[in-house]
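protien #1 (seq + structre)
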Amino acid sequence: AFVNTSGIIVITLYTSLSLTTFAAFICFEQPDGSFTNSVYPSVECWAGDPKHSAMLGISATFIVLYPVAILVGTVVVACYYWKMLLRDPTSMRRFRFVFGRWRVSAFYFQSVRLIRNLLIAAISTLLPYDFPEVQITLLTLVLASFLTVQLLLRPWRVQGLNFVDAGLTVALLVLLAIMGASLCGGVSTIVCSGMSEPLSVLSTVLVGIAIAVGLVYALWQWRRSMQGSLSYDIFLSHHSGGAAVTTRLVKLL
């Protein structure tokens, strides 16, 4: 139980903590041409500042200990899936956070999601902030690629979650497209005013539609589950444990 609970927490916080480990590499240019860290503005980046060098060392250490180590550990556990299933079924409960949400044919998909989340965190932080078009292009490529894989495999055990996951990814792709359209061009003769009013209205409408569709789908699934529920006076289970004896006793009665 402890391993499974700890794994659930780690997997849930994977993206946000990965972003935190990359914080030492996020630096912004100042008017005088120097670069300072986004979290600690008093620390000058890439200029031999011992504080920044120490931050880079600590950040690199925790990148290896957290995002990389968790990803490698998940891949290793997935590689031993069939051996654990045949030789030690109790270990499946221990590593339920890795396999519990996915169909048997896609038992490895937790590793795929961690790779996607790590790429999203790395692209958002490690690439220079003054090249947003590169960031948006790479993020779009990553999301579109993993969306294709997700639609082909449909890995979630609950079919509705496949649609929800795909819908959220499509919403992110739409937002990235809107952000790309609102970027300022590099031509100095063009006066950049950011996102235009029609584009702002369009993005607001699209976000509102996405939220409404999500709520309607959630209510529909809830109503469907309530209508399809059945109640039993006696439920017989042929579980191989102690329940089997109890079941036979109920049958005799």
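ok now protien #2
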Amino acid sequence: MEKWKCDVQEQRDVYRLLHEAFSAIQQGEKAIQALVRLLKLYSENEGVEAKSDAHICVISHIAHPKIFVMDHLLDLHPIRALDGQLSHELLQIFVDGDLNDYIEFYNNNADFVEKLAVTHEENLRKMRLLTLASMSQDCNEIEFSQLVNKLNLATDELEPFVIEAIGSGLIKGKINEPEGKISISSTINRTFKDAQWLFIKNKLEMWQKEFGYYSREHEKSQGAFCTAYWWRIIISNYL
């Protein structure tokens, strides 16, 4: 649109039309992308002008079955303009809350939730998945009993749920049925803040030290092992 020399309002009109068009043909992800681009065109002082679009953006993210990370929305000025409203409170729960937070919100605001373009049952499903992702953040194993209690699931619902979580890409792991637990190898970060940057910094420093060691060993071995081989060892150890 810069090539066409569109002003800001013209760009907003285009993205709003794109959102409507993609929504009409059931292209949910593209519709959401257009809406996010639209909201980015509003400054801090203009955010309140797009509160209606911001509300639609929030609910669209929550309703989409494959979108789990939403913390980037909190930086958009029209989303910030929703602060104090129920849609903003609900977004915050889906950003970093857990299943109990959502259930409490629903119990207090059932009429609001029932009017949204997403059902309570769909919200429960996504919040269970997000809660599992949070539980998996700092541990390698989770007992079945913990999951049953935290996720409010029956025992016979647990295995299909974990399979869904793994299939969705939220976590990587496997079910250890004989020992009654799941083993976690990695999980998504629902939010990306200072703690996550520090984690990456530490990982990179670890890689740097290991690469230095293996490079020296490589030189000592006079090329017996290629550098790519040592990189594979480093990555397998730390990823």
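The mean pLDDT is 87.
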